[in-house]
# Entry
Amino acid sequence: MIRPAASLLLASTLALGALVMTNANAQTPAPAIASSDGTLLSVSAHAEASRVPDVASLSTGVVTQAADANAALKANSAEMAKVVAAIKAAGIAERDVQTSGISIQPQYRYAENQPPTITGYQASNTVNIKVRDIARLGDVLDALVVSGANQVNGPSFEIDKPEAAYDEARQSALKLAQARADMYAKSLGLRVRRIVSISEGGGFQPPMPMMVKVQAMDARMESAPVSPGETTLGANLDVVFELGR
# Structure
């Protein structure tokens, strides 16, 4: 004979077990299954979309040398202050300026059969900046060098809001996948019944940067010529189709 309290405990346990099983089943995605008379076809497709970039990223900074570390850092800080002032004067917003590295390194002299000797210290300070008006990029580069920057690396061109280009690439990749599925189906005397699943795989192709290293440019030169060209973004899709009669 089961007592009321035991009966209630048993019912609660069964209900809890059923709930756990239900939740576990809900979290497990159903595998792609074809109809009894169908065939699954997996197609991978890649497509690209191009845009004229509207943002340029580059790094710039100052390298100084002195007999001791303190003097090297002080000289570097004084020169870097001029560079930062030039960046602000060029209209670069604070959110587009980020310090990427500060270092002080000893400089050595090497001689045969002798331990290295410290001859001085080198200090460097580098910032990453974004130029959102690419038409002024040449003027910005010139202003940096005139202000005392002796290290300039870049630029790397990118699209500020790339989702529209990515969506265009996705749509093109989907059309390509559908065309391939139709081709396979026709070759087999079948037709495409439906799309079973779509997933993005392999990531996107990032824009290829154009890297130019500039050192000790003549302050009297004209604005540095810059050609942003086009930036290409890509999308990869894995699409599963069901084929049948």
User: Anything to note?
Assistant: The first helix runs from residue 4 to 27. Strands lie at 39-51, 55-66, 97-109, 117-131, 151-158, 191-200, 212-214, 231-244.
